[in-house]
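Consider this pair:
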Amino acid sequence: MFPDARIFAISRDKPEESRSLAKKIESDHRGPLGVALLSDPESHTIDRYALRDPEYAKQKIDGVPRPSVFVLDQEGRVRWQKISADYRERPSVEEVAAALDAFD
């Protein structure tokens, strides 16, 4: 659909936790994850974009981000974003595709 687009997922999980998750998903016969998992255990990127979910403040998992999707251009500028308070609310493929189409 968009062969030049690269997709990454960023979480607080350590790399070994992300690898374990990817293997679990694949072993559940859902196929490969299909996205690169990046580790941000200190929440630096999460904080840079002000995504830290306040529900987890002062808890062991403080630094967990709100569910977010960003579309960046080749210079790293945010061209589109959707940030949600509810992990079940994700942008549709059509919404993300429209954001990518806007690059033309």
